[in-house]
Amino acid sequence: MRRLCPRLGPRPLLWAVRGPRRLSSGAAPGMEELLRRSVPPLPPYETKEKAVPPAELRGAEFVRFYRSLQPGPPRAELLTRLARDFGVEHGRVAEAAAKVLQAREQRREPGALLQAEDRLRYYLNPQYRGLFQQLGRLEGGLRFLVELRADLMEGLASKAVDGPHVKEMNGVLKNMLSEWFCTGFLNLERVTWQSPCEVLQKISDSEAVHPVRNWVDMKRRVGAYRRCYFFSHCAIPGEPLIVLHVALTSDISSSIQAIVKEVPPLETEDTEKITTAIFYSISLTQQGLQGVELGTHLIKRVVRELQKELPQIKAFSTLSPIPGFTKWLVGLLSSQAKEQGRNELFTECEWKEISEITGDSSSETLKKLLNTNEWVRSEKLTEVLHSPLMRLCAWYLYGEKHRGYALNPVANFHLQNGSVLWRINWMGDTSPRGIGASCGMMVNYRYFLEETASNSALYLGSKQVRASEQVLALVAQFQQNSKL
């Protein structure tokens, strides 16, 4: 999309230059000394309250040094050394754990046991946690830590850094960011066409679900019958952290093309026509905040904001993508053909029609058509696949699990929030991306505000999914006509 304002260059990727998985034999000059100076040692438990806080200059020196390192092995070396050499002091932990056991065995007074447990908790803190705390207090330090975690996650994903120490450090930093980015420190901001062009550009760049085509498209998405909100942090003002796009409609939408279609922006809106709020896109702009609970809180805050502005809104729903459905379906076709020599996802009548259209009694041609989006070019094949794909999609969302919870990450997110699996929409997204990811289908997760708490507790506690009659009917069709 053409830019209306100048933009700073992208942040250099930590792993832009990919080195071998094995770390370089020689550390960057001064790295070891820098880490010793920057990472404050954990003072003895008895003197922890009297310990002198580390100088801010040490933290600033670490930030400058880190940013001066070339992308690739040097930065990987630093992160690996930090995680490995400045973690938990295991000797102290063992000693403290022994004292807890001793206090329990000797049945000492409660105060002595509680103090022993407090000592153990204290020594379970890795040393690098002190560095992160120090950096979090610096001006610009919180932004740096978010970038550092993004680098960590990217490195772990690419195997440029690996091992239990690095994974543990990533988890520690995630938990610290979860505390620093709790709702009390977050500001809800609405985006309009009058917002600074830098903010509009960032909103456009961060739209990961339905890409913004041009500035006319952007103007429509923040104009009449649309709302756009984001969370910012008090320490990083004006910087979008997570963005939510809302369409204000008269009913629950079934097609994303109707929401993001190319039409001139409307100048005014008739509030009497608005009865429904559709959450059609939520995007995290900072990869370093993955796993930090922001989306749930943003939806709840936006609901309250809309209720104040437009109290006549009675229905709150999403129009959500179904990433991974096509991949799951093609995988099933492959595994069933390999194991059984035939597929059992379709009825005999359905498979006969599919085979006649594709000219192939095996599933190979169908898999190819699904992988290349070519199946939608055939009106006959699209019509034949309508019913089986709808029931297969219903089962994918309702019945396919990972550790008891919905396999699909978008479904899991909204079900955790207490929504109802409401409606599956055939050809809800006819874009190439929508056809490729989910055979064009989209789903509505509906939020009944008075039931979200109980639905969430039911899902998280008993792993039960609340679903509408339409979805349950499709699931029943799947159980009757398809086999996994």
Describe the structure.
The chain is α+β, with helices and mostly antiparallel strands and 484 residues long. It has helices at 31-38, 56-68, 73-85, 90-105, 110-123, 127-136, 141-158, 164-180, 197-206, 215-221, 256-260, 295-309, 325-340, 348-358, 364-372, 379-398, 409-416, 432-438, 452-462, 469-481, and strands at 186-190, 226-233, 242-249, 276-284, 315-318, 401-402, 405-406, 420-425, 442-447. The strands form two sheets. A seven-stranded mixed β-sheet has the order 1-2-3-4-5-9-8. The chain has a two-stranded antiparallel ribbon with strand order 6-7. The two termini are 44 Å apart. Residues 6-29 have low confidence and may be disordered.
**Share of residues in strands:** 5-15%
Q: What share of the residues lie within helices?
A: 40-55%
Terminal Cα span = 44 Å
Structural class: alpha+beta
Which strand order spans the largest sheet, edge to edge or round the barrel? 1-2-3-4-5-9-8
The helix tally amounts to 20
The biggest sheet amounts to:
7 strands, mixed
- Residue windows where pLDDT falls under 50 for at least 5 positions: 6-29
Overall mean pLDDT stands at 90
> What gyration radius follows from the Cα positions, in whole Å?
27 Å
Care to count the β-strands? 9
Name the shape in a single word: globular
Order of helices and strands: HHHHHHHHEHHEEHEHEHHHHEEHEHEHH
